[in-house]
Amino acid sequence: MGAKLSPLLSQATNVLAVRGQGCRLYDEAGRGYLDFTSGIGVTSTGHCHPHVVAAAQAQTADLIHGQFTTVMHPRLLELTERLGDVLPDQLDSVFYANAGTEAVEAAVRLARQATRRTNIIVFQGSFHGRTTASLAMTTSKTSYRAGLQPLMSGVFVAPFPYSYRYGWKAEETTAFCLKELDYLLATQSAPEETAAIVIEPVLGEGGYVPAPPGFLEGIAERCRMHGIVFVIDEVQTGFGRTGEFWAFEHGAARPDVIVMAKGIASGFPLSAIAASEELMSRGWPGSQGGTYGGNAVAAAAAIATLDVIRDEALVGNAHDMGTLLLTALRRLQASHPAIGDVRGLGLMAATEFVTDSGEPDGLTAKGVTAAAERNGLLLLTCGPHGNVVRWIPPLIVTEEEIDEGLVAFEAALAESTG
Ligand code: PLP
Prior knowledge:
By secondary structure, the chain is an alpha/beta fold. The protein folds into two domains: about 15-50 and about 315-415, Aspartate Aminotransferase, domain 1 (Alpha-Beta Complex), CATH 3.90.1150; about 50-310, Type I PLP-dependent aspartate aminotransferase-like (Major domain) (Aspartate Aminotransferase, domain 2). It is built from 14 helices and 17 strands. The chain has helices spanning about 40, 50-60, 75-85, 100-115, 130-135, 140-145, 165, 170-185, 215-225, 275-280, 295-310, 315-335, 360-375, 400-415, and strands at about 15-20, 25, 30-35, 95, 120-125, 155-160, 195-200, 200-205, 210, 230-235, 255-260, 270-275, 340-345, 350-355, 375-380, 380, 390. The protein has a seven-stranded mixed beta sheet, with helices on both faces. A four-stranded mixed beta sheet has the order 1-2-3-15. It has a four-stranded antiparallel beta sheet with strand order 13-14-17-16. Strand 16 and strand 17 (about 390) form a beta hairpin. Helix 8 (about 170-185) runs parallel beside helix 9 (about 215-225) and helix 13 (about 360-375) packs across helix 14 (about 400-415). It starts with 16 loop residues before the first strand and ends with a helix. The structure holds pyridoxal-5'-phosphate (PLP). Pyridoxal-5'-phosphate binds near residues 104, 128 and 204. Pyridoxal-5'-phosphate binds next to helix 4.
């Protein structure tokens, strides 16, 4: 008798995907679905982009696994060189792993070792991963943490400027949250004990909420003042997703460490952190490694991904298509009171569903995504109440595909909200 997949693993859709091409996934019967989930923000160049496929196929024939603490392989050197074109000048030292959570943990290790301090400050609603350290930093939903306490200690949670939730303007929320961060530094985690402040520039799993640039600048200022390592988790926002190569580039704040994964290699498992060589060398020798980090096929795919992002001007496309999408969603919001808020940056857009009394409405969001699936459009939800429908199309998406998605969404809205 065959084994079965664990019952703890669930799927958001009913699709059995056998093939992917561009913005579409196809099931066994050959039915196409417009994939506006991008495998949770991964397939930015679209499914099976020919240039990425060719690079991975060629590398597979040459060398699959050049274990990077045993030997070095040329693709990793080339990828590192190429990342230099997109990283801030001073962040010129890169370490590779496989999943986002590993990269987050590598950033935490580095910050703790480099500062000889213990504490990490994160923000309410963040998702940084499911392993021991990153899970302790994750507060986007109790189900990730349930039954697993006590988690790693030394993690402190400050409020994230989620203006719609507070019912305030961005400036007001920013000022409040910076004040609360200062209060936390005065009451719970002294600056001299704080190794790192870690933030997602756009809250992902927590509800697709962009942090106002002033908030990131306020954090950067405090980090500079107190010698705290400023870590930006760009796992979901990086590689052009928000209409800038890195989401922090929408403002003036500059991090000490960038954590990246997802969009880096078009679906091959690869993650990384970038920091200055000076900061990296303050970590402890031997503290970075891993069997699979910087895999040769994943590295070849990442180089090809960078080619496609550059040659097809995908960062600009994310900005333009994102503007188009947000404008259209705001138009829909005007005639659908169930959509309480529309927000986003580039191709990371959200429609937040609420009841007549303004409470989070996860049921309607679920109904809308299920109806959208029946109409051939795949969308995911997020937020602690599952009431935020998130839009993450591949960065290659065209105006026609956005329009097609909007038609399917509007029909789904009509079916689910009457
Ligand atoms: N950080 C952010 C911002 C994420 O969105 C995610 C995953 O969704 C992670 C970290 C963890 O990445 P992974 O699932 O690859 O471990």
